[in-house]
Amino acid sequence: MALYALSDPHLANGVDKPMTIFGAHWHNHTARIRENWLELIMPEDTVLIPGDISWALTLEEALPDLQFLDELPGTKILSRGNHDYWWQSMSKLKQFCQKHDLNSIKFLRNNAMLVEDRYIICGTRGWILPDDPAFNADDARIHAREIGRLKLSLEFADQIARPDCERIAMLHYPPFGKDQLPTELTALLSAHHVSRCLFGHIHAPVSAYMTYDWLLEGVKYTLISADRLSFKPLRL
Asked: Based on the structure, what is the number of domains in the chain?
């Protein structure tokens, strides 16, 4: 059993959204994800996917993308990204998966999961941070809500904690800014003994997020956007 991660697959099997508008390196990216996945992932493995999963606007539009993931080996734990407009309540997501026999997909929101009796997976979407020049009153409201959701997830993790289990957080947005200084989000992760935080969202070569396994207050941070990993799931 092994744990992998890959963020921002930006699947578009049910909508017309060619990713090559963002660069030639996105050419045929869905097939490349599938090829790399099949080379690496075994049925007993688990893959973390923290957001920007599908360009669909509705759950029905997202069905081909969720089926694509479900047909790949392993259990998939999904959390929401800023482009996942199809995402709905946990009850609706679970009902949709049951209806369409999407049995290998799980959703992370305000909760935490024990994986392989070795890892506790927690996290939230996150949002742009107060140091962003574009940050406004609406962003402040969403940012505060995401802090609350991370607290709920971390408290859930505390409840299911077992000795010797590693705590891993999956966020979509980076929880620290370009200055690489601590934030409310990073403080929460450290206080709840998270050892590693995986995040996506960043596609441009921003120096603050380039360092692999960058350490802040005892937590290792790793950018796992699909294009930054050459569309190959990262083994943890």
From this structure: 1
Contacts of 221 (CB under 8 A, 6+ apart): 174, 175, 176, 196, 197, 199, 213, 214, 215
140 sits in which H/E element: helix 137-160
What tens digit of pLDDT does each residue of 177-208 get? Answer: 878 889 999 999 999 999 999 999 988 776 66
Residues 6+ positions from 3 with CB-CB distance below 8 Å: 45, 46, 47, 48, 115, 116, 118, 119, 168, 235, 236
Q: What is the largest CA-CA distance in the chain?
A: 47
Mean pLDDT, the chain, rounded, equals 94
Q: Which domain holds residue 207?
A: 3-235
CA angle centred on 38, ends 17 and 94, rounded to 5°: 65
With 0.85 as the threshold, say if the pTM is over it.
yes
Contact 47, 1 (CB under 8 A): no
Query: What CATH number does the domain containing 108 carry?
Result: 3.60.21.10
pLDDT (tens digit per residue) in 80-117: 999 999 999 999 999 999 999 999 999 999 999 999 88
Burial 141-163 (b: 16+ CB within 10 A, else e): eebeebbebbbbbbebbeeeeee
215 pLDDT more than 90: no
Say whether 44 sits in a helix, a strand or coil: coil
Host H or E run for residue 105: strand 105-107
